[in-house]
Amino acid sequence: MNALYETYDNCSHLVGKEQDDGTLLLPVAHSTQNAQVEVVVDLHGNFIRAEEVPKSDAITIIPVTEDSGTRSSGIAPHPLCDKLIYIAGDYAMYSNKANAEVCYKQYITQLEKWCNSEQSHYKVTAIFQYLKRGCLINDLLSQGIISLSPNGLLDDHKKVQNIAASDLFVRFRIEDFNLYDEGAIWKDRDVYDSYIDYILSSQEGLDLCYVSGKEIPCSYKHPAKVRHAADKAKLISANDEYGFTYRGRFAKKEQALSVGYLTSQKAHNVLRWLIERQGYTRYGISLVVWDKNDKAIPNILDSTQGISNKMMRITSETDIGYSYANAFNKTIDSYKGLLDTEATIHIISVDAATTGRLSINYYREIKSSDFYERLKYWHETCIWEHEYWKKDGSKATYIGAPSIESIVLASFGTEQNGKLNVKDELKKATIERLLPCILDKRDIPKDIIRSAIQNASRPMAFSTGNWKRVLNTTCALIKKDRKYNVEDWNMALDDKERDRSYLYGRLLAVANRVEYLTYEKDEKRQTNAKRYMQQFRNRPFTTWATIEDNLQPYFNKLKSNSQKIKYEKILNEIYDLFDKEEFKKDDPLDGMYLLGFHCQSSVFYNKNNVAMNDDENEEGNDNE
Amino acid sequence: MKENSIEFKVYGKYALFSDPVTRVGGEKFTYQIPTYQALKGVCESIYWKPTIQWFIDKVRIIKPIQTQSQGVRPINFTGGNTLSIYTYLKDVEYQVKAHFEWNENRPDLVNDRNENKHHNIAKRMLERGGRRDIYLGTRECQAYVEPCEFSSGKGHYDNIDELSFGLMLHGITYADEAVTEAEKGHMTIRLWTPVMKKGIIEFIRPEDCTIRRIVGDMKMKHFGEGNFIGLDEFTEEGDLIGMDECTL
């Protein structure tokens, strides 16, 4: 809370200004509404004209009172711009709504108070002058914006921007030849300030603010709409007068907590703005990483590629591998350059279990130097080769860390309609558990790795593309896991490695390759190696015997003799590396076998690609 | 009066020292570090009599601070249930140094002010894991106490010079232990800004907290006929059989 509150003060120059990306940091005691009608008056309160507001320009900053800001039902007029029922004095004549007169009365007395206060503003007074006459509906009728139905009431069938006539929201503009600005009072900082000063001076009674520690006017009603405009959940709520959330020790909610009005408004407005601008909002959670001085910060959940791309926009698409590491480092350094090392980075994540209450489910503060060091560490250790599709449709690879979301999908995903899916709850919980792995260099929880290995061992359960994604991500996890045990596995094939699982993985890759080479052009079936993969993992020795038996026909089917010799040679090389006893043991393989499999496979694959398809070359040689 | 202190470690799987900002709504979110009041409660669970009053001197954070959120299903008092998300501290361990002083608000117990007696009982009870169940912050966060030497062993924050935690709750001064005239007969909230140095937070005394808020009237708990035998057990000198008969 305190950090949010300070952020507002540091960003005060942005208040009320729409940013390039369309987000907006609201001033204290203000809210936004979509307006449908704009009424133009001059400084003496004479009606000039009214016009419809196009939808693209409808968002209007309006001042609100404590009550109107949180109103749901009941009468609580906004101080300035509001719906017709509140602001039009002649509304009752054209409608049979019972409380129309009360609404107007409350509204106009409230506005009068503001206009008569020391903090009043001449533009607001002009509007008050006009509305006091109570002829708004008449004027709108004469402008043809709304019309009457035969019974003399407002015709709701005629819609303005899809809103029924009786429900229109009105904003004001002042046009006068004595006025040199554009007169849009919802954009006028002087009007904001006038209202803020007014509302602060009209507050009575001091109490201790639990956030700032000062004796200031306090509020017991806090704003909602934190995550998005339709969000009812409140970060601070105390509606439970019957339960025992605070009752017991405390008799009233005022005893249990008091938070300053300004503090609360500032903190909420900032959080709303941050979430909208740089938050990660999915499945109900909203995660924001920010710095009090509002410096740009990379998205911690993103992959190496994602982070680098955002900043650098890598142009040469030919890059493979390490240039991404460079780009990433450059990106991080450029972010880092914006911050001094002592700055604090805040991470907050909010979620709601019910519609009414918002809860914080993660909060951390980290020194920015630590933050970048750890982020870098993550992107240097949790890495593997990933494939992606370039814009022109061709395949490319890069080496880097997968995004958090792809880790979740790899470990818990199941395929539905060709897409990997994870239940929202599980996804949220897993993301929360993975955050400390990045932010505190914690180990990745074993169950996530185990589950990913399990998934990667079931190629039959996924489409090829998805399975490859799962496999690559899992390899990154295994590598990260192993690196911790000071085994620095290269992405390249290590042909001296004697780890049992690794070697078995390589064997499987060879079997896979040999069978694949015999495919006809459009053959789509899975190889034996892939079909047996899961069983192979559990009982490598016995399963390998089966796979090897099945492999013989394919060896004979290979297009050339040299190919046959080549792959048999590789197999023998691998056999030689095995410890005899180790080979015969039928214990399940650990994750290392995936690394072996992937490394060996990519050796085949890359040779194919890079050296202009050496298989065909061999074939050519044979023909000669 | 000598400093009658005890030193112990308290550890548990979870802890929840709810921030009052989130407490009123029911979506509890924990502070990063224990409050003074929570540790005082732990001491009182180890051993307490109305004669004495525990003061927490300092706490040392041993394990890294990490949180975990959990979906919970609190029961509505009016029936049914609701859903919430609580955020707990996970896998916590603290070393605590505390001492007791006489509660000056209980002049009726002045004859019970026997330092050695209370100190020895407290130490014995600590060895046995406390008289009542120990918990960290909220009742579902069960914990255990063991005697230990303060600042023994390694802590995760030993090398971190200074870490501050912003404004947080220090505790609540109940009428029983109120010191100033204004606060007697009331309940008072105390706030402060703790700073951790090399893993250790030195608490200020409750009466030294400058940010305070009196929130309501409250009577002192009455100890006497009906719920407390007081010193009457010692009036019949040497009569041990009489002691056995009493229901305490």
From TrEMBL, chain B:
GO annotation, biological process: defense response to virus; maintenance of CRISPR repeat elements
Native organism: Variimorphobacter saccharofermentans
GO MF terms held by the record: endonuclease activity; hydrolase activity; RNA binding
Keywords, sorted A to Z: Antiviral defense, Endonuclease, Hydrolase, Nuclease, RNA-binding
Domain of life: Bacteria
Keyword Chloroplast appears in the UniProt entry: no
Protein name: pre-crRNA processing endonuclease
Enzyme class: hydrolase
EC number of this enzyme: 3.1.-.-
Family: Belongs to the CRISPR-associated protein Cas5 family. Subtype I-C/Dvulg subfamily.
Record-linked NCBIfam families: cas_Cas5d, CRISPR_cas5
